What we know:
Blueprint: E1 11-18, E2 28-29, E3 35-36, E4 44-45, E5 65-69, H1 80-86, E6 92-95, E7 104-111, E8 116-120, H2 123-126, E9 135-140, E10 153-154, H3 159-164, E11 168-170, E12 174-179, E13 181-183, E14 202-203, H4 209-214, E15 225-232, E16 238-251, E17 262-269, E18 274-278, H5 284-288, H6 291-301
Amino acid sequence: MLQTNEKHLVEFLLQCxxxxxxxxxxxxxxxxxxxxxxxxxxxxxxxxxxxxPAFGWVGDHIEPGVSCTADTHKPFEHPNVGLQIYACAGNRxxxxxxxxxxxxxxxxxxxxxSEHVIVDFPKxxxxxxxxxxxxxxxxxxxxxxxxxxxxxxxxNLDPDLLRSMHIRELDGGMLEVPVTTVVPAVCMGSGxxxxxxxxxxxDIMTSDADTVREYGIDRIRFGDFVALLDHDNRFGRxxxxxxxxxxxxxHSDCLEAGHGPGVTTLMTCASPLIRPVIDPAANIxxxxxxxxxxxxxxxxxx
Length: 302
């Protein structure tokens, strides 16, 4: 079992509410030069959840589940910055008001630009929610470290989710991490150059169809764990040959140039100490029994 500093982590209660669907209210242009007006970021998204395909939706930057904010009017200020940084993938979220009171969900990650924390809730719960409802997240995980692997840095990762990821310890101080997809460095786009990765995400560019097919990027699902080759996220998002970053997919494919499925960083190292291994079930929905996986289990019981 991986040894961590979990018992020393700080756990906050983070308060937020669903953010209304957002739009620029004007034409946008895709990477072929075609204008479009389509659904995009934000909202209580009723028919999209963890485990669903990140491709094929009639939209751009679709955020699955419930897009949460502490202050939609001041996304880059307190308290929304604290919500962004302290909410970690795998954290439990509870609705504490309204008809959905008491329902639980799980954080997938956070989306930069919209400054939303993405939380997966069952569809029947989302049907009962209002944008005035309050959600409380048990924010725990920022500062998590692997005691025996000091050169592997963790961000945005709940300790319980870490334990669920089926990571294997290998000889030579390496870790084997299951992922659904390995992404070449050349595909990483919007978000590169950010000063740190403790909030926000960056995108897998999908404008080159041949590369998308070659690496199976079009099979990515919301909540997938993916490996980003030659990307060092320790002190921002940067290219470094031999580096490896593991992230979780938090929003859909995109039409705009430089964009695609968004990835929140979970693990990173400057040298190849992480060995990604392909596992189609390396998805938070499959590991925690939420999203599409929970829906399939419900149908099976019927």
